[in-house]
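In this section we walk through a basic example: taking a raw amino acid sequence and producing a predicted 3D structure, encoded as discrete structure tokens. The instruction is simple. Fold the sequence below.
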Amino acid sequence: MMGSRAGSVRFVLIVGLVVIALAGATVPVSAETTTRPATSKADYYLDFLQPPAGAQTGAGITAETYNLMGPSVQVAVVDEEGHVVTSCSATITLSILNNPGGGTLGGITTVKAVNGVATFASLSIDAHGLGYTLQATSPEIAPATSPPFDIVDVGEICGPGPCSGSTATETTGVQVDAISGESGDLLSLSLGVQTLECPGYEASSDVVTFGVSGSDRTKTVTITVDKSVVNKRPNKGAAHFQVCYASPNPFTQRDGTPAPLVGGAYTGLLPDCDNQPPVPPCVLSRHKKSGDAVVAFLAPAGDPTGRT
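The resulting token sequence is shown next.
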């Protein structure tokens, strides 16, 4: 059925699913340049002038989130005052420091500085994960560590109006639809980068991590659980599939009680969307399609706003 293929919010379809959120962008910074030489390499430091930003799995990493044509990652040799040492032509190497996804850094990772700046134009990471960092090193020069960035299954730069993305594994499919927003909003979507549990229930889907950053957008999230998983459940009806949800913002659970704070996020089963109009977060619908279980729910604008 399906092929394999960024505060935070997470969700799990019980008997069912799990969903989580992420989003974020890295803004490049610049440094002042100088031609003044330092007395020795011991006086030099490395600095990410244009740090790596979020990217899709296996795609090019630039200094602008999800933009393959964005400015390249750059590392400079600077002196104690933070000025670029333009007389330096040191060889600089990048490697993964924090490796949440067990990924491998691809592309040209060792570059000789030109006028004190090394430009890395072909970087990629082959496994999704939240919070990767890169380390820049060069002999006899103090190393530098990049700000954290995410590698996701789907990363989209939205235009004005609706924005959507989808991905799937062998057992779980997910589609995120943002109703409205501004050009430049960022949609992120991954399966299986985090874990999520709701007490007393067993999850059937992979964890879905998603988010839409930028302007406020209400999101409809549709999760499909393959019939091969559904048929293993004692209760195969669509009504038995619930959504386990985690959010940085308080919400009311399915049983009418406030969701408890668990590990820094409010976590619990979502109620149905009984109000007209519906008040997110809530479950919109449940049904079966060709034996698959399909559950859709609403995530409010601004929720999620990050990740846990």
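Looking at the output, two observations stand out. The chain has two domains: 10-24+152-299, 33-146. Residues 1 and 115 are 54 Å apart (CA to CA). In the next section we compare this with other chains.
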